[in-house]
Specification:
Layout (H helix, E strand, L loop, with lengths): L2 E2 L3 E6 L3 H12 L4 E4 L16 H6 L12 E4 L7 E2 L15 H4 L9 H4 L1 H9 L17 H15 L25 H12 L5 E2 L9 E2 L5 E2 L25 H7 L3 E4 L2 E8 L4 E8 L5 E11 L3 H10 L17 E4 L7 E4 L15 E4 L18 E6 L20 H9 L4 E8 L8 E9 L5 E6 L4 H20 L4 E4 L17 E3 L23 E3 L14 H21 L5
Parallel strand pairs: 1-12, 2-3, 2-12, 3-9, 4-19, 12-22
Antiparallel strand pairs: 4-5, 6-15, 7-8, 10-11, 11-12, 13-21, 14-17, 14-20, 15-16, 16-17, 18-19
Helix pairs in contact: 1-8, 1-12, 6-12
């Protein structure tokens, strides 16, 4: 039987970006918060002089232990879902900071078009442009309404960047200047300018200069060491909850942070939550933490899974399109890229940073005419320099044997001579792409695993073919000796696809019939439950999700404060 603890004003499940922002804002306002994190505690000093590719990149030390909890996947509901046993597509963070510790740092804003995508698409192209099997919807908030929260997140995390004309207005410039433009990025810049495009440096959570944020947190500039994705930053240069918002919350004395605390259920009567049940993963003891407000701020998958296992909200039914929990699961469409091979040129590809890159805006959102295209939205076309690592880096032209003399020769030839023109496309919801509870498989605590039913769609395939032509034209302008272009989208494979941007499942909107939460991330069906994170996105844009997740988290924190004072629905 669970040990019952004293009631607290707020309990937050998950202490990554969403949970850290909410804990910081509420505790600064004098509100007591219990923060529950199922992984271990982490701090910046844990990463000092630890550039260990094998440990972090290949053995995934910062990730969830798949032997204790994983997800299952199938491409459609006629298949049997099987557990993911090794990390490929998804790298789910575990521990203080969550995915905010191991992310790359690319910090875009979504477009004004994203937040009113259904309305704007129908206005420009007519209602027949959006096919019936794509349950596209507006977000229940506009870009202009969310813009101040974007600004707050960027100032807190010190985002480095430059203003882009084709995107929404900004109340302030980025707080720090863009990152350094390397010879690799200059090649892309020169080619795209010749083609008439307007390249810009990717907005970066890797600091371009020393910076002190409005909370008084000082951080050092990026050293371009290339150990960003899957790694914690030893300098604190990469924006991370562990070095930004969490120290602020802890400094107030109002945060009770409990690590190794795995929440298994939200206690509720169907209309209101009373608290949570969690297990101490070190001792196996079970505790009940009562609270006036429950904030679910873990990863996309766990947000939906926790609600489903707690019977909060109506589960989505793909047969008739009713229900909301599990609806509009989206991913990202990353084929359509071109790889460039040079025989007589070399670049310093082992230096870099997770958000060191350059992009063009002309093919994002609705910035180009879709009248004659079998898809909507678009893709970010970019070139990046993350920094190659010795074990993982071994690219050769398509058709090269995967072992033997020729493989070795090609590997050596192109070690420092491969560039890419990448395409990261938006992911639109499809009626048959969703998440629910797996009827067969359970985790180490006997709770059903999350099941993903997902495959790429006709929309995705058309987008990839279009963007492949764009990346190919840019690649040709860059003058390599050989180009490989991936112009077709293969079926989704959970162990192969490598984009990590999962969204949806607990989506926001203006009506409870089509969404699970309102614009403050407050559940329609349980007014004292707030579900915060990329699970709120009704679709995924062509940009990385963290900036929008951060903005929505600041708005949610504002909403929670209002709710504690006045109660009831906030919209």
């Amino acid at each position: 039987m669970a040990t019952k603890l004293p009631i607290e004003p707020v309990v937050v499940v998950g202490m990554g970006w969403a949970g850290g922002i909410i804990a910081s804002e509420l505790t600064k306002a004098g509100i007591k918060v219990v923060g529950l994190e199922r992984g271990k505690e982490r701090k910046m000093s844990d990463y000092l002089m630890v550039h260990d590719e094998l440990r972090f990149q290949h053995r995934e030390e910062l990730m969830q232990d798949l032997s204790k909890e994983t997800v299952t996947h199938r491409n459609n509901n006629k298949m049997r879902a099987l557990p993911m046993r090794q990390y490929g597509t998804f790298i789910v963070g575990d521990g203080l900071g969550g995915a905010g510790s191991h992310w790359n740092g690319q910090t875009y804003r979504f477009l004004p078009y994203d937040f009113e995508i259904k309305t704007m698409t129908e206005k420009r192209y007519g209602k027949n442009k959006i096919k019936a099997e794509y349950p596209l919807q507006d977000w229940g908030i506009t870009y202009d309404e969310l813009e101040p929260y974007y600004d707050t997140f960027e100032k807190m995390s010190g985002i480095s960047g430059e203003t882009v004309e084709l995107y929404g207005h900004r109340s302030n410039p980025y707080p720090t200047k863009p990152m350094l433009k390397t010879p690799v990025l200059e090649e892309f810049e020169k080619a795209t300018k010749k083609l008439g495009y307007k390249p810009y440096m990717i907005p970066s959570g890797n600091l371009s200069e020393n910076y002190e944020n409005p909370d008084g947190v000082s951080r050092a500039a990026c050293q371009y060491c290339a150990y960003c994705e899957n790694f914690g930053c030893e300098y604190g240069a990469k924006a991370d909850p562990v070095v930004t918002v969490l120290p602020v919350a802890q400094g107030t004395g109002n945060l009770d942070l409990r690590t190794h605390a795995n929440v298994t259920r939200i206690l509720n009567d169907g209309t209101k939550a009373t608290g949570v049940i969690y297990v101490d993963t070190l001792t196996g003891e079970e505790f009940e933490q009562p609270a006036e407000v429950v904030v679910v701020a873990s990863y996309v998958f766990n947000n939906a899974r926790l609600l489903l296992n707690s019977r909060l909200g109506k589960p989505y039914d793909p047969a008739n399109g009713t229900g909301v929990i599990g609806k509009n699961y989206c991913y990202q469409v990353s084929s359509g890229y071109s790889t460039l091979f040079y025989n007589d040129r070399e670049f310093n590809l082992y230096a870099g940073a997770g958000a060191l890159g350059i992009e063009i805006p002309e093919f994002t959102g609705d910035n180009f005419d879709h009248t004659n295209e079998n898809f909507i939205h678009g893709a970010g076309i970019r070139s990046t320099q993350y920094g190659n690592r010795p074990i993982a880096n071994n690219n050769v032209p398509i058709g090269t044997p995967s072992w033997g003399k020729e493989f070795k020769e090609q590997s050596i030839t192109y070690t420092n001579s491969i560039l890419q023109v990448k395409s990261q496309g938006a992911s639109m919801p499809h009626r048959q792409n969703y998440i629910d509870l797996d009827p067969t498989y359970k985790d180490a605590y006997g709770m059903p695993l999350l099941r993903i039913t997902y495959d790429y769609t006709e929309q995705d395939n058309a987008l990839v073919k279009y963007m492949a032509k764009v990346t190919r034209s840019i690649a040709e302008e860059m003058g390599p000796d050989h180009i490989d272009t991936v112009g077709e989208q293969a079926p989704f494979n959970v162990n192969v696809d490598t984009n990590t941007h999962n969204t949806g499942g607990v989506i926001m909107g203006a009506e409870p019939e089509t969404s699970a939460i309102n614009s403050y991330q407050q559940m329609w069906d349980a007014e004292n439950v707030f579900v915060v994170g990329a699970s709120a996105f009704p679709h995924n844009s062509c940009f990385n999700p963290t900036g929008t997740l951060g903005a929505l988290s600041y708005r949610a924190a504002e909403g929670i404060e209002k709710y504690l004072k006045q109660g009831g629905s906030l919209v």
